[in-house]
Each structure stands twice: as structure tokens, then as C-alpha cells.
Specification:
A hairpin with a 2-residue loop joins strand 2 and strand 3 (about 80). About 45% of the residues lie in helices and about 30% in strands. By secondary structure, the protein is α/β, with parallel strands linked by helices.
Length: about 260
């Protein structure tokens, strides 16, 4: 293989990050006002339906957002509370500093504390990966740390590997190691939810996604795919954090 060919192969092996998307929403609506839309006739009719009773029960909740506040940080990965990376901690610290003293503070929720409190409630641990039980565990852990609200975010990715025309090089030993013959595409998704620890009121949501591409040789395409997915997940979270900051700023204005 010539020097020129090797240079081209290394150039093609560089990952390309494409633009993803971001969004957020906030909520400060009154449960009493929402339920006031029911007439007395509606209420009598709904007494016959269990789902209608559930709707009224779930809706009768009021926002009580106040700043400054102690806001818990919870990162979920594969249905479990996981540690924040150094880059994530650095980014959240920067957000707190930019928001100022009127905002409050971010406090990571300890997975050990959450597990300890959750287990002490004699809850069936076989179902603790259920989404409802995960949020129950998060709120119990945050309550034990005396946090006002908790920001829960989760990141995951989808990866696809495609053969290129150069895959004919896989027929040779050297070509299989050096000639790029696979295109790896991965999309990272991150979602965040801000909850009131005491009442479960959802004050806001945020989301972000990010695409990444990389060219790899056949013999290391699996390792490349895993590494690209891991890097892209971190990059997706870092893209989510500014969107969460915008959400928080809107909520601070609404709570004044």
C-alpha cells in the first residue's frame, strides 16, 4: 500500500458530526383551573368510570416552583442511576454559574442513597427496572437528600453499519485491516424531565439528538461502532444541557 493510500484511509477514518435537533417545553398550569372545566353533570357521569376518576386524581396538582432551589441531577442509563461524566459535571457547573445565585444549586442524586431508601420501603426489587419504579426510586432518593426538584435525563443511541463498495478489500488480510469498507452511522438521543420531588409535578422537558458518521475497516468496525456510540452519547448530553438551561430560564421568569 502506498503512502498516499494510507493518508487517504486515515482521512476517511475521521468522524463527521452532523447537526441534530433540540427542543424544550415548560408547564406551570393549575390543576384546580383545569378541573373547573368539568360541569356537575360531567362529574356525576365520570363517577361511573375508574379511568375518569384517575384523570381527576392525577390532574389535581398545583405548581409550587420557587428559586433559589436545590435541584437534583439524575442520569439514567439502561434503566439505572449512573454516574455523571467529568464533562457533564463541568457543563452543569457552568450552567449554575451562568444562572446566578437566584437560581440555586445542582446536587447529584446518589445512586447508593436512592437504592437504600427504595429497598427500605419493602418494594419488590424484581420490578425496580419498571419505568414507574425507577421514578419512584429517584424521588425517594432525592427526598432523602432534601432536594426540592429533580432533573432526570436519559441518553441512548441507535447505530447502523453499512458496507461500502470498497468492501472487496476484505478479501485480503491487509485490506481488511487498513482499507475503510464500512460506514458507521449512530444517532444519539437525550431526554430530560424536571420534577417536583414532593408532588411529582412536571415543570419542563427538554430533548436533543445528534448524528455521527465514521468510516472504518472491516476488522475493527465493531470496536469503532461502540466507541463512536459512546462518544456521540456524551456529545448529545452536552447538546442537551444548553436546552435545559433555556428551559430553566423560562421557568425562573414564570415563577417570579
Amino acid at each position: 500500500m502506498t503512502k498516499r493510500t494510507i493518508q487517504i484511509a486515515l482521512l476517511l477514518a475521521l468522524s463527521l458530526i452532523t447537526v441534530g435537533c433540540q427542543s424544550h417545553s415548560v408547564q406551570m398550569t393549575s390543576g384546580k383551573k383545569y378541573l373547573s372545566g368539568y360541569t356537575q353533570v360531567d362529574m356525576k357521569e365520570q363517577n361511573r368510570s375508574s379511568i375518569d376518576q384517575e384523570v381527576r386524581f392525577v390532574a389535581q396538582i398545583e405548581p409550587s416552583l420557587r428559586f433559589p432551589a436545590r435541584i437534583g441531577l439524575v442520569k439514567l442509563y439502561n434503566g439505572k442511576i449512573s454516574n455523571l461524566s467529568a464533562k457533564e459535571i463541568e457543563s452543569w457547573t457552568k450552567v449554575k454559574e451562568e444562572m446566578g445565585e437566584k437560581f440555586g444549586d445542582f446536587v447529584p442524586v446518589s445512586s447508593m442513597i436512592a437504592e437504600m431508601v427504595y429497598s427500605s420501603q419493602n418494594i419488590n426489587t424484581k420490578s425496580n427496572r419498571n419505568s414507574v419504579e425507577i421514578f419512584r426510586k429517584v424521588r425517594l432518593g432525592a427526598a432523602r437528600q432534601h432536594l426540592d426538584y429533580v432533573l432526570v435525563y436519559e441518553v441512548f443511541s441507535k447505530t447502523k453499519t453499512t458496507k461500502l463498495a470498497s468492501s472487496v478489500a476484505n478479501w485480503t488480510i491487509i485490506g481488511g485491516y487498513l482499507i475503510p469498507s464500512r460506514e458507521i452511522e449512530t444517532t444519539g438521543h437525550a431526554n430530560a424531565l424536571l420534577l417536583d420531588v414532593r408532588t411529582g409535578y412536571p415543570y419542563g422537558t427538554a430533548s436533543a439528538s445528534l448524528d455521527a458518521n465514521e468510516i472504518a475497516a472491516w476488522f475493527n468496525d465493531r470496536d469503532k461502532a461502540r466507541n463512536l456510540a459512546d462518544r456521540n452519547q456524551i456529545a448529545t448530553v452536552l447538546k442537551l444541557i444548553p436546552e435545559v438551561q433555556q428551559m430553566m430560564m423560562e421557568l425562573m421568569k414564570k415563577s417570579q
